[in-house]
Amino acid sequence: xxxxxxxEAVQLTFTILVLFLIFTYYTGILxxxxxxxxYWAPIIVTFTYFIGLxxxxxxxxxRIQRRERDWQYTPLLFIGFLAVFISKYISLPTYDxxxxxxxxxxxxxxxxxxxxxxxxxxxRGARTRNWAATILLGSAILTMFGNAPIGPGVHPIFxxxxxxxKDVPNTAGMRGLLIGMGTGIILTVVRKMLGxxxxxxVGEVENV
Amino acid sequence: MIxxxxxxxxxxxxxxxxxxxxxxxKISQNLIIGLYLGMTITAGLDVLYTKAWxxxxxxxxxxxxxxxxIVLGILMLTRLxxxxxxxxxxxxxxxxxxxxxxxxxxxxxxxxxxxxxxxxLTSLDNVLMVVGVFTSITYFLFSVRSQNxxxxxxxxxxxxxLMVSLGCMLGLEFMTNVSLPIGSLPHLVLGPxxxxxxxxxxxxxxxxxxxxxx
Amino acid sequence: xxxxxxxxxxxxxxxxxxxxxxxxxVAALPIIFPIGLPLDVTEVTRDYYATIEDIPEGGFVIYxxxxxxxxxxxMGPADIGTITHLTKVIKKNDVxxxxxxxxxxxxxxxxxxxxxxxxxxxxxxxxxxxxNLGLIPGYESTLAALAEDLHKIAPTDVEGxxxxxxxxxxxxxxxxxxDIFIFSTATSPDPYPRQWAQYDKPxxxxxxxxxxxxxxxxxxxxxxxxxxxxxxxxAEYEVMLGAPGLGCSYMDxxxxxxxxxxxxxxxxxxxxxxxxxxxxx
Lengths: 208, 214, 281
What we know:
The complex is a heterotrimer. Chain A is 81% helix and 0% strand. Chain A is mainly alpha-helical. In chain A, helix 4 (75-90) crosses helix 5 (92-125) and helix 6 crosses helix 8 (156-167). By secondary structure, chain B is mostly helical. Chain B has a domain at 118-214. Chain B is flat, with a radius of gyration of 28 Å. Chain C has a domain at 60-242: Rossmann fold. Chain C is 56% helix and 12% strand. Chain C has helices spanning 3-9, 12-32, 43-53, 72-93, 106-118, 140-148, 150-153, 167-170, 191-196, 209-220, 230-241, 246-280, and strands at residues 60-66, 96-101, 130-135, 180-185, 203-207, 226-229. Chain C has a 6-stranded parallel β-sheet, with helices on both faces. In chain C, strand 1 (60-66), helix 4 and strand 2 (96-101) form a beta-alpha-beta unit. Classes of the chains: A mainly alpha, B mainly alpha, C alpha/beta. Chains in contact: A-B, A-C, B-C. Chains B and C meet through helix 2, helix 4 and helix 6 of B and helix 2, helix 4, helix 5, helix 6 and helix 9 of C.
């Protein structure tokens, strides 16, 4: 049992499975087994949802117990959860209403903050301090003006400039980034297989 | 009509924090988390029912590799139990292995070999493309920093292409992110939602007057 | 936004609030009083339209719907346009469509909103013309499995019906039986061509405007056939379909807010430059 607790045992599991899946991918041998193994991923991911649920509940229950700042609002979290959970199995129209009429607008509005803060970012941070920043901002301005319908509406050249920036220098830079990313993915997996990525083994897990 | 009023009210509850942190925002924050959590858990239970329970117990696939997936998922939950949390490392290792292997096999073809295929040097745009790709790659070779003037020139040119690229991404990112508040606005300024917005503006004006007198 | 934040940054929030207020006014005015700025349809949108239009008789479409609820404002018009067009080819060419969500539960919510509130599904029958596999979380591993062995990764649809019992999915094994891949994502588009490009089938993408620059290399390399970037892509598609809707209604606001942002950048940089000159003196 003590061997199973060791980092090397987890490492071995990871390495063997990666090699097996890559082998089956390129050779086609044991394809059925590969398909079954790929199916484990959605199942394991689904169980992680429940871990998240317990952690969120525990964290917020402690907030209420310790009377932390704004704890009075925290019971709404539990009420919201129970409302959705119960309505899903008792009253689907109520469930649909809660998700589509209450959660959806709030979710869109919450994400809308990023768009609003963009203006703060432009106001506070968009300075042409050096030539690199000047090129970046210049490219951003030409992109923004050419991409919005008003740019080509003022003169078609702005739309063409935007398309050229997107199709040539942007694509060139992005291709370099993608090659770097692809190489990074492969190197990371190789490093993990060789045991050089300690993040795979989480150490003594801090339990709830 | 009620739905439109609630849609507008929910949106404005979240955006009320743009002026100042207030109880309405805190209510919306906690509601979002609770509702989202409920949605996620019910979706997860649906997945387990349709993709695990039915094939195993109705479809009779109990003695198959599928059952191992369920066992691994249950082992994942040991993370919550003191003393046996180490068991959860195995399903995490399996998950990482599956994700890593599919990413590696996919990346080789599409992200490396596919992107290294250069267009023919028959136009200025294609020449710029080839120059841009290779100089951008040299920029990322941090461990190979060299005093060689050609290499340094290459990294500088690569930096230019990357700055143009990032600027283009910034411009497009702006469109993405400004789309989100714009998408909410019709519900606030047209139809019944406009009444809610009017009330909100009056409350905001009162809050500004109150704060300025403090 | 909290008191601590306000104290920490002094007058910072007040000026920001004015900037935000101007943004809301600039964005709201064209929604209340539409201007109707002309919208050019780009070549990539035309290619997208043509690819769906050319789906062969009895063709099989797999549509990975992974955009979230939060991104609905941006990607909704493009998704609505795509599904509307698919309903037309379903009726015209007896095409079959299979929806699936691989990233998180939000995709299913957004899909249901579109199917029940925004697309005219009259004459389209669930089970006969389209099915929904529901959520199969796992993202890239699910995408790989969908192309390799459909029945293994998705033994049933979202209602629990076995795929073996549905006539037009019973014999479908994987990518070799699909005619076209479509994906809609609010995050990184990389996993889709990584897993699907190897099968040499058309791949269409509905993505955020921000990821359009990310998709471009794949498009240029021929891995992704065409894509619709964000609200603008959705608006262009509505023009192609001859049914201006949500997307077109947002474009005037997009134009004015873009101009506002550009003016903001120019003004602050001129101000900063003049201040620096003064300090140098």
